[in-house]
């Protein structure tokens, strides 16, 4: 049996406990037999893989590859994954570029099967790079099995720190990546108090709202501001607080509805 993270509470208190114990819990999780076997197998065998067909044919390799990008739920969608990998990302018509979830594009770009040249699987250190991501995300998934909000907070902390270090000509491309990555988008939507109907707006309108509210509410004028640990922490804490309040409100509404039903006269 794999090590299960200990999450005794939710919300900001749960986040504080997780941060205080994260290193020791993650170490215990990564040493569990299932994780150890899968990562060792991947690092040993991935150098033999030269095509998308080879990768999807090996379920154990594919499990690690997909898990490293948070796409573990697609393990049985081998035909789709093969098309994504073989299509690459250089062509505008590539399948990875057409999908709303940018994690597929990251997967295809990282493995490099579809754009000519030598696949990244032949590069020294590639296996270790992917297994490091797999371990981190698998731990997040294990946390999410107990508390989904904490999983999203961990994912945002890791991925936004990486995004903040990129230096494009403008922030727009990075914002569109965030908007196209469901876990990151969810964190910003909740932190900024955006309604469910927000997703129905045009992409340009969404971008404007994200950038304006992030600056006014979170002090994020540019995404590089997230390199400041206090700014990133502020975003995550605001997300967890708003999510916790929404959960309490939902529980209160359900309790009121139950009370009214119990008090309603019975019909015989």
Strand content: under 5%
Q: Report, as a whole number of angstroms, the end-to-end distance.
A: 52 Å
Determine the CATH topology of the largest domain: AGR_C_984p-like
The biggest beta sheet reads: none
Rg over CA atoms, rounded to whole Å, is 21 Å
What is the share of helical residues? 55-70%
CATH class of the largest domain: Mainly Alpha
Supply the number of structural domains: 2
- The CATH architecture of the largest domain is Orthogonal Bundle
Mean pLDDT: 90
Features:
2 domains; disordered C terminus; mainly alpha; AGR_C_984p-like; 268 residues
Brief synopsis:
The chain is mostly helical and 268 residues long.
Structure characterization notes:
The chain is mainly α and 268 residues long. It folds into two domains: 11-142, AGR C 984p-like (AGR_C_984p-like), CATH 1.10.3700; 169-263, no CATH class. Helices cover 66% and strands 0% of the residues. It has helices spanning 11-30, 33-45, 52-57, 59-67, 78-87, 95-98, 103-111, 126-144, 148-164, 172-179, 182-191, 203-218, 229-263. Helix 2 (33-45) packs across helix 4 (59-67) and helix 9 (148-164) packs antiparallel against helix 13 (229-263).
